Amino acid sequence: MKRLALLSVVALMLASAVFAPVAMAQTPGDADVQTVTLGPEGTLQVTGTIVCVAGHDYGISLDARQTQGNQPVKLASGFTSGICQTTGQETFTVDLLPAQGSKPIRKGEVVVSGSGFVCGPSVCRGAPIGVEVFELAR
User: Which of 82, 22, 87, 12 is nearest to 54 (CA)?
Assistant: First the structure.
């Protein structure tokens, strides 16, 4: 019985080692937000990476929202684009500005989401950037 359990565990470990890289494979346009920093007047500076192909165009669009108690929701958004310099992970920075009519974002929790894309001569590939929560300090 113990041998069967041990063999099952070993088989699971081997299967996860074989299939894990497939599940984590990234394609052009996949992007990840890594840091969010509070700037002057409620602006945000967001850094991250996007999977690029050298010479192709890329773009990142981000939105941020913050709720604090029963105060109105604070919103900010931003966009950046460029040309991929390398094939693989490329770093990006996006400055998010408060939306018109929205109060500035302050220290505390902020939710960031968006999308990224990479376009070549004949094809574009876009992907959503999942919702992530960041804690802002000042």
Answer: 87
